[in-house]
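Summary for the steering committee. The consortium agreed at its last meeting that each partner would contribute one worked example illustrating the joint modelling workflow. Our contribution is presented below. We chose a case with several input lines so that the handling of multiple components could be demonstrated. No manual editing was applied between input and output; the record is shown as generated.
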Amino acid sequence: MSAHVNPLIDTKRNPKMIWGGVALIAVVLVALPFALASIGTAWVRITNLAILFVFLSLGLNIVVGFAGLLDLGYIAFYAVGAYTYALLASPQFGIHLPFWVILPIGASVACLFGVLLGAPTLKLRGDYLAIVTLGFGEIIRIFLNNLYQPINITNGPQGIVTIDPFRIGSFDLAKNETILGLNFSGPIKYYYVLLIFLLVVIVINMRLQNSRIGRAWEAIREDEIAARAMGINTRNMKLLAFAMGASFGGIAGGMFSAMQGFISPESFVLVESIMVLSMVVLGGMGNIFGVVVGALLLSFVPEILRYTVQPVQEALFGKMILEPEVIRMLLFGLALVLMMLYRPAGILPSAVRKRELAKARNEE
Amino acid sequence: MDIFLQQIINGLTLGSVYAVVALGYTMVYGIIQLINFAHGEVVMIGAMVAFSVITALAGTGLPPVLILLIGVLVAIPVCMAVGYTMERIAYRPLRRAPRLAPLITAIGISIILQHVAMIIWSRNNLPFPQIIQVIPYHITPSEDGATITNVQIAIISISVLMMAGLLFLVHRTKLGIAMRATSQNQQVAGLMGIDINRIIALTFVIGAGLGAVAGVMNGTYYGIAHYQMGFVLGLKAFSAAVLGGIGNLGGAMLGGVLLGLIEALGAGYVGDLTGGVFGSNYQDVFAFLVLIAVLVFRPSGLLGERVGDRA
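What follows is the complete predicted structure of the assembly.
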């Protein structure tokens, strides 16, 4: 067992260069929304959604990457978080709680659902979990679609509108504001909030990975029986991974609700779960920075396709043959298959994962 | 009482379709312990191919049963080819990889098949041509009592025939012996002169062939085909396979029929039982609740052996 080396505290490298690099990235990240806003506010929104998906992928990475449990209904937790926020901060029930109260509630509710779902299935083999989560995702959507009669809770397929944005006192994230001569539009303000949340999540993930818990997950992923023999309570650890992943999904859902101001069951279909999974797989399961890259790639490439596919096809064939949406889905499917066949550890493989997968192949 | 009988008949029909699809899952699982997520998509492709063939032939004046038969006979080889390609490209290279890998490729394949089908057959609901005239037969003396249609009778009997055929194949032929040997221990089976790769591929192909017939039955029964129909159908069939004990052929059949009955009776009575709070729009939830309940109380399924928690 080789020692675990974290690239960020690798003492062999020059600390000045590392801090220089960090400062450069920070400047780029701070300036980015203004650069994007000059192309169009739409791109700031797209970036915000991309950050949200990075957030989701990191949550799913805990479940799939760290603990090796395949969760195919991850979007259900996102939905639970989103609806919790929407119901507690909209005219639907006339409740308007502040966001810093609701986000923890949303996370807890999602966590509760995670535990309820995980408890019966986690003691079984991983494949069952995959199918049960897949079904769970569908069930949540069916309920969201139908819980408008006899008591109207979710407002059915119409969804919930005019959801409160993040607000502290009179500071409203959705409003335009001019600070120091710069025009801060709603999406730009959300960008900064999301960025802060994201950094916190990345730090949590990194700390988790090298913690006692993270190592236990890794052990379970590599060999559950051996892990149990080493005294790890495998069921509780798996449940913990599942619950943590679910809570991150719940928080991301709350932010989505606040940012969009409108949600409907349409946003929480199976395809979204698959998309988040593709992001994790593409980036490299268990590798935090790989997952970030994977999520950003799969968020932006389809958007770029949306703007280029039509003109290119019209130039080549004179009409649109494949809609960008279809190409996007084929891309996800291909990403899943090809990555597993040729580069199972992802574009940026984690060291442990790579060793593990290589070993499995050579074992024969 | 008539409603009850009617729901039983509907449930049996539905259940036979689930059972045939569930056989595809359970065969593959039994032999290589893989959940073939894309099996639902194979069923969908079967329905779609048959749809195209039947629509093309509907105006030719051939007898309806013959048209349907041609549809099925075209759908079966297409699905078999899909099943074989799938196994060859996506699963065989990963047979020794960690468990997660083939599950993820299976999902990828499923998405690709769905969207290729969408490109070929459009994203609309395709109306299955109703060439067979549906004739209801009364099974009780009263005029407005429960009925069973000729289509339902055909679906149930074809399913039973196929299941009997499969049981015969697995338990009485040389191929079946090879399949059972491979499922018990691939290496030893290989040493006994069995071509494991061929047997595994054949398992996929047979499962896909059954899936094709199930797809056509589903399409004829509901009168509709859609590129996403395989997903829910697959999920339910998988639940059925788990209910009966995955890896066990008899279990898949029993599970399928039971699930069909649970669904039909559940959807029929849930409104009355809950005072109208939940309606039949929750029909799709039952399969899932059954799945959870089985996993909690009897993870090995009704007829299955102990699965345990092998990592």
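DSSP finds 13 helices and six strands in chain A. Chain A touches chain B through 53 residues (CB under 8 Å).
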